[in-house]
Amino acid sequence: MLTAGVVLFHDNDLPHTARRTADIFTEFGWELFVQPPYTPDLLPSDFHVLLHLKKFLSYSKRFGNDEELKTSVTR
């Protein structure tokens, strides 16, 4: 599937889900996947996880390659 065409991953913001936009995607022959409006595997009680992730990402980290990224995330 991934090598046969375009896979479009987007959020559920209105411009991405509007009828006209969906029609254009269909004209292009792109397959769309419906996503939940929120992450169902995170409970509101898991807010501390998101807080740490936000802090981690807010330092404008840049990685030269995939290995640097993996090392930083798994520390």
Automatic annotation (TrEMBL):
GO molecular function, one term: nucleic acid binding
Leader sequence residues: none
InterPro entries: RNaseH_sf, Transposase-MT_Hybrid
Name of the protein: Histone-lysine N-methyltransferase SETMAR
Naturally occurring in which organism (per UniProt): Trichonephila clavipes (Golden silk orbweaver)
Taxonomic lineage of the native organism: Eukaryota, Metazoa, Ecdysozoa, Arthropoda, Chelicerata
